[in-house]
Amino acid sequence: MAFDVAGLRINDSVDDFQNLVGPAKEYLTVTHDPEGKIVRIFYRQEGLPNDPQTQTKLVNRICDKYGYVTSCSVAISEINSKEKNFLRFFNLYRNDDETLELRARIRRTKIISLTPDLTVEIDLVDSAYAKTLRDQKAKASDLIDF
Q1: pLDDT, position 7
Q2: Where are the domains of the chain?
Q3: Beta-bridge mates of residue 30
Q4: pLDDT (0 to 100) of residue 146
Q5: Which of 22, 34, 84, 116 has the fewest Cβ atoms within 10 Å of its own Cβ atom?
């Protein structure tokens, strides 16, 4: 399975991002290697309405595009439930050869608010680059002395 975010894929040229046309571009952040190949695509959109129609649309869009998994069913069940409130959706997807990681998340932006809105995040990253980031983060926390 090949993942994309707004038509961009890992290893595409950074020029592909610069030439991208469409409403999604303003919500994208792209990281590239020294050769100009994309290693991370991060999409974040805030301020979306927190109503059942928007919640359902967002969950279905992610699940239809990247794969319908258990967390999709749980989220739809929470949205449709009279007893529960939808608070969040999260799933980590990996491609078959585990060279790509895609984190999809929908969450309430403000926990304490009369009308909390929603934020959607899609984070597609090359697995080797993700491992490098995790290693750097682990080493950085070892250096902090409180």
Answers
A1: 94
A2: 14-143
A3: 41
A4: 52
A5: 34
Instruction: Give ∠ CA 132-122-18 in degrees, rounded to 5.
Output: 85
Pair 127, 98: CB distance under 8 Å: yes
DSSP assignment of 71-129: HHHHHHHHHH-SS----EEEEEEE-TTS-EEEEEEEEES-SS-SS--EEEEEEEEEHHH
User: Would you tell me which CATH number, out of the four given (2.40.30, 3.10.350, 1.25.40, 3.30.2030), belongs to the domain 14-143?
Assistant: 3.30.2030
DSSP secondary structure letter of residue 19:
T
Question: With contact defined as beta carbons under 8 Å apart, do 48 and 57 qualify?
Answer: no
Burial grade of 26 (CB within 10 A; 0-12, 13-18, 19 or more): exposed
Per-run averaged pLDDT (10 residues), the chain, 146 residues: 90 95 94 95 94 95 96 94 86 93 91 79 93 80 56
Using a 10 angstrom Cβ sphere, with 0-12 exposed, 13-18 middle and 19 or more buried, the burial of residue 74 is middle
- Chain-centroid distance of CA 95 in Å reads 15
> How far is CA 120 from each of CA 63, 74, 86, 117, rounded to the nearest angstrom?
13, 17, 14, 10
With 0.85 as the threshold, say if the pTM is over it.
Answer: yes
